[in-house]
UniProtKB/TrEMBL annotation:
Keywords: Membrane, Transmembrane, Transmembrane helix. The chain crosses the membrane at residues 96-114. Signal peptide: none annotated. It comes from Neomoorella stamsii. Belongs to the zinc-associated anti-sigma factor (ZAS) superfamily. Anti-sigma-W factor family. Residues 7-35 form the Putative zinc-finger domain. Gene3D superfamilies: Anti-sigma factor, zinc-finger domain. It holds the Pfam family zf-HC2. This is Anti-sigma-W factor RsiW.
């Protein structure tokens, strides 16, 4: 029997124990259809915000080895694909986009629409935005950042710009585990209705994925030295030694339908960020938006977001095109290959003070599912 979508996803993320990894790998070695499903899962975008990039890059940028059986076993004949899904494709092509680089760019994007408010309060509201605006990163932008962050010409050594620390969930906790419907609220903090059947497909399994806490501490002295050399706006001096802490909430993953013919529904609460007190936010935003290595087109787009109290920027790349859309009366976004009848679509939207997303369905069908998920 073919494994469910959630089990394949846990296999990709390296979160299964050795025995289960061996069983899944053995099945994949003999099942071409499931190998195709695995590859399709890897190619799907796994996130819709730059905030999650810091976690993805710090823990996955180096291509974290997936747990696999020892050499010589039958299961080891098939090696899990290492190609990361969605934003991970960009990470592989652009090695600089990891750890500190992701954290710096995430701060730029966050602060592009939030001058003047308490930074902690701003981040607590980051996923309560009522509007979404797509911000494009072109291949030319990526090439420019590649050149800088790869150290060509000695322009930038991003590793000197700060420190990113990842505190994983308690070792006693299983990062991804299958749960019953009545356990979802207690483990995720969401009052989520997951119908037994959606668009003719029965609910196959529900999983909860625990996430880490990420702390970014900028090296203000080194950053300001670089900024001064290149004519940039300096970071506030009182930011030295202070950190930003990002807490990512548990992710609910619900599989519907038979393997290869179903879809997956995701839900999560707002992430929260604790920020240092007493920092001049206007000066910090100005400095970040004027980082010399930011491509001019990206800088202009971020600076042009005027309705900062209600607008959430969504990054779009050539390999992950994004479009704005209305879902249940709320603004949302979908990522896909440009064909509305394709199942390679991720639809994400805000509902009831949380985020929802659907992957594995054509857009029109995903929109119908969204009306039934409360």
């Amino acid at each position: 029997m073919c494994p469910e979508e959630g089990l394949l996803q846990a296999y990709l993320d390296g979160e299964l124990d050795a025995e289960m990894t061996g069983r899944v790998a053995g099945h994949l070695a003999a099942c071409a259809a499931c190998r195709q499903r695995l590859q399709a899962l890897e190619e799907l975008a796994g996130s819709v915000t730059a905030a999650l990039q810091a976690y993805e890059q710090e823990t996955e940028a180096a291509g974290r080895p997936l747990r696999a059986p020892g050499p010589g076993s039958m299961a080891s004949r098939y090696q899990p694909l290492t190609k990361r899904r969605g934003i991970g494709n960009m990470i592989r092509q652009h090695k600089w986009f990891s750890g500190v680089a992701a954290a710096v760019l995430a701060l730029v994007i966050f602060l592009s629409w939030a001058p003047g408010r308490s930074l902690a309060a701003q981040f607590l509201n980051v996923f309560r935005m009522e509007k979404i605006q797509v911000v494009k990163i072109t291949p030319e932008d990526m090439a420019q950042l590649d050149k800088l962050f790869n150290g060509q010409g000695g322009e930038v050594d991003i590793r000197n710009f700060g420190r990113v620390e990842v505190q994983k969930p308690d070792k006693a906790e299983v990062k991804v585990k299958q749960v019953k419907p009545d356990q979802v609220a207690a483990l995720s903090g969401l009052q989520l209705d997951l119908p037994a059947t959606l668009v003719g497909r029965e609910r196959a399994a529900i999983y909860i994925e625990q996430a880490p806490t990420i702390t970014f501490t900028p090296d203000v002295e080194k950053l300001n030295s670089y900024l001064q050399k290149h004519g940039g706006v300096l970071l506030p001096a009182n930011l030295a030694g202070k950190s930003f802490t990002l807490s990512i909430p548990p992710l609910v993953i619900a599989d519907y339908g038979q393997p290869g013919k179903g879809f997956t529904l995701y839900a999560a609460r707002d992430l929260t960020i604790d920020a240092p007190q007493g920092v001049d936010l206007v000066a910090l935003r100005q400095a970040l938006l004027n980082l010399p290595f930011l491509p001019e087109s990206l800088r202009r787009q971020l600076a042009a977001i005027n309705d900062w109290q209600r607008t959430l920027p969504i990054l779009e790349t050539r390999d992950m095109p994004a479009r704005e859309i209305t879902v249940n009366g709320n603004q949302g976004v979908y990522f896909g290959d440009g064909a509305t009848n394709s199942s390679n679509v991720i639809l994400a939207w805000r509902q009831d003070n949380s985020w929802r997303a659907i992957s594995g369905l054509p857009l029109e069908e995903a929109l119908r599912v969204a009306t039934e998920v409360k």
